[in-house]
Design a protein that fits this description.
The two termini are about 25 Å apart. A hairpin with a 4-residue loop joins strand 25 (about 420-435) and strand 26 (about 440). The chain has two domains: about 70-285, no CATH class; about 290-490, no CATH class. Helix content is about 20%, strand content about 35%. Helix 1 (about 1-30) packs antiparallel against helix 6 (about 490-510). The chain has about 525 residues and is α+β, with helices and mostly antiparallel strands.
Length: about 525
């Protein structure tokens, strides 16, 4: 009984502290952005972490991604989502590389952006020879290939008529029916055929130049649900030109969406593995994904270190409720995003979204960039900016390492090929995952342009998706995030609340002890 009485007495004396703790947690739950973590160092300095900041740290110091060089191609590689190529073209890929350097590839094309209605399939046979490391793109390997045979099978009447017309442009009379027969195999390329009708693929702009550039990566991460580490291989192949008329002469300079190597514990791999030209896969019916209306609110960050034609980049974009936006672009000189070159911070406005009439599932926006700050992050970039002949990238000789400088007043930065203000004509799409995450797809950049600067250059395909995150990024060290014009209040409010909550907990503990 004495023990019970003492316990009751301890609970009554501790109740004010318990109540205060519950209050602190309640306030934090209501007012702090989801995913924000508050902490203090021994010196009392406030620290903040967030989902966005955690993802950026993960990408910048990611040791769980390892290059496999040279690529070990033997095996089966396949799409893990419905891919969208410029045009638009909706497709999935299933590529098999054999031990003798030969390959058997399937490209399944669809009528819809979910890849549920097969339209036609190319079955491709040939051989591949790896070459040296690419001089154009760090971390990439070049290759040469030879086609042996290309077989076409069509499943939809409208495509049967359109493809027959295109094939007859190259090989008049060879494909004499005005409409190709459905589920019939047509050999549209045959290396061993001597007559002119051995190569009829020019009219349909078919090419396998993506095999000229490649990179293999080995990924490892901890699966919280399984409480174990999981691993997989990804194969990046060369990009496809955004202008269809130049596709057959284009040599890749960047990558497409990566393919994943077949594993028995991979659900999407399993039904892709079982597919062929006689039974094309229906992607969306076998995936836990849902299309949602594009809502530009909140923060989104890269899901991987993204590749550009010269640099590699991590993007972090923040959308506000008043059709304004801001973004951070961190540029690197290596495919793992470990070695920074410079970062850009921009602010601007955007229009309301309009459903695309050209790209199924897409929404069109116009983005205007009005303000810009640049931060040089290595000495070469700093010297390049300081030595630029004219004062149209801030003042000459005014650049300092890791110090941001505004270039709005000089209408951009000619040294980096940027002029302000400018408008980009965007295409976006949004989907949710089975884990409850949100992915935002933004438009693929034009192959021969730095940005889609006109309506004619509006994208018809997508880049690597961004993932929705929350909180304030702790690595944003740019002074411009201060609330100088009323747009930086969210970060300041979060910081103040975090400080108050830490102070409340500290005071509570001091009183109790």
């Amino acid at each position: 009984m004495k023990i019970l009485g003492q316990l009751q007495s301890d609970i009554r004396s501790a109740w004010p502290g318990i109540f205060t703790t519950i209050t602190v947690i309640f306030v934090a739950t209501i007012y702090l952005p989801s995913g924000t973590i508050c902490a203090t160092t021994r010196s009392g300095k406030q620290l903040m972490e967030s989902e966005c900041g955690s993802q950026l740290r993960h990408l910048q110091g990611n040791e769980a991604v390892r290059e496999v060089s040279p690529p070990k191609l033997k095996g089966e590689w396949m799409s893990t989502r419905c891919e969208v190529r410029p045009g638009p073209q909706y497709l999935t890929r299933q590529y098999k590389f054999h031990h003798d350097n030969k390959f058997t590839l399937h490209q399944f094309y669809y009528t819809d952006h979910r890849c549920t209605e097969p339209a036609y399939t190319y079955k491709v046979k040939g051989a591949l020879a790896l070459q040296s490391d690419s001089l154009m793109l760090k971390g990439a390997r070049e290759a040469n290939y030879i086609l042996d045979k290309v077989i076409l099978m069509v499943y939809k009447d409208n495509y049967a008529k359109a493809l027959s017309k295109l094939l007859n442009k190259t090989c008049p009379g060879e494909y004499y029916p005005e409409v190709l027969q459905l589920f019939e195999k047509y050999t549209v390329f045959d290396w061993n055929r001597d007559d002119p009708y051995g190569d009829c693929i020019e009219g349909v702009a078919f090419t396998m130049h993506e095999l000229q550039l490649m990179r293999e990566e080995f990924h490892t991460e901890f699966d919280d649900k399984k409480s174990e580490f999981v691993s997989w291989h990804e194969l990046f192949l060369g990009d496809v030109h955004t202008d269809n008329s130049l596709r057959t002469t284009h040599r890749p300079k960047t990558y497409q969406t990566p393919l994943r190597k077949y594993q028995t514990n991979c659900t999407v791999c399993q039904f892709m593995h079982d597919a062929d030209e006689n039974s094309p896969p229906k992607m969306w019916q076998n995936m836990d994904k849902t299309d949602v209306e594009v809502t530009l609110q909140g923060e989104f960050i890269s899901t991987r270190c993204e590749v550009r034609q010269v640099y590699f980049v991590i993007r972090h974009i923040i959308f506000h409720h008043n059709y304004s936006w801001e973004a951070y672009y961190h540029y690197y000189n290596d495919p793992n995003c470990h070695h920074p070159e410079y970062s850009i911070y921009v602010k601007g406005t955007h229009t309301m979204g309009v459903h695309s009439t050209e790209v199924s599932g897409g929404t069109e926006f116009d983005f205007k960039t009005i303000e810009m700050w640049i931060t040089p992050q290595n000495n070469m970039i700093k010297d390049q900016l300081n030595n630029f002949n004219e004062n149209n990238c801030a003042r000459r000789n005014s650049w300092r390492l890791n110090r941001p400088q505004e270039v709005t007043s000089t209408n951009g930065c000619a040294a980096l090929g940027i002029s302000l203000p400018y408008t980009e004509y965007e295409l976006m799409r949004m989907e949710t995952t089975k884990e409850g995450g949100v992915l935002l797809f933004t438009g693929q950049r034009p192959t021969l342009q730095t940005s889609p600067s006109s309506e004619e250059l509006r994208p018809t395909s997508y880049q690597t998706p961004l993932m929705r995150c929350s909180g304030v990024n702790p690595l944003m060290q740019l002074a411009v995030t201060a609330d100088t014009n009323g747009t930086g209040g969210a970060a300041g409010l979060t910081s103040s609340l975090c400080f108050i909550l830490v102070l409340m907990v500290f005071s509570m503990l001091t009183v109790q002890h």
